[in-house]
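Field guide to reading this record: the first block holds the primary sequence, the second block holds the structure written as discrete tokens, and the final block holds curator observations. Each block starts with its own label. This record concerns Putative membrane protein insertion efficiency factor, catalogued under organism Roseococcus suduntuyensis.

BLOCK 1 — SEQUENCE
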Amino acid sequence: MNPAQHVLKGAIVTYQWTLRPFIGANCRFHPSCSHYAIEAVTEHGAVKGAAMSAWRILRCNPWNAGGYDPVPPRRPGLNRLSSASPSAGPPSISPATRPES
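BLOCK 2 — STRUCTURE
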């Protein structure tokens, strides 16, 4: 887990222990928005997890019925950096297969 994820998770836990008791647990979804945020940051990283959490908080309003809304699993193969081979370069053309000019 990178430092940004630790900072975000720390901020969420701080919210859960300080502000939430005064505001009340009024989330329309299960898991709650703050638990969703922790899981999203852990599963998808700081940037995408924060974006997913913000979208979830925006949907938590009186006009939305709410209900069960888990964090979607990470889809394999979407991380371009981890799937790229460091030794893979552009394909080479051997002299035998090079087109004539």
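BLOCK 3 — OBSERVATIONS
The helical segments are 3-18, 20-23, 33-44, 46-59, 80-83.
The CA atoms of residues 95 and 101 lie 12 Å apart.
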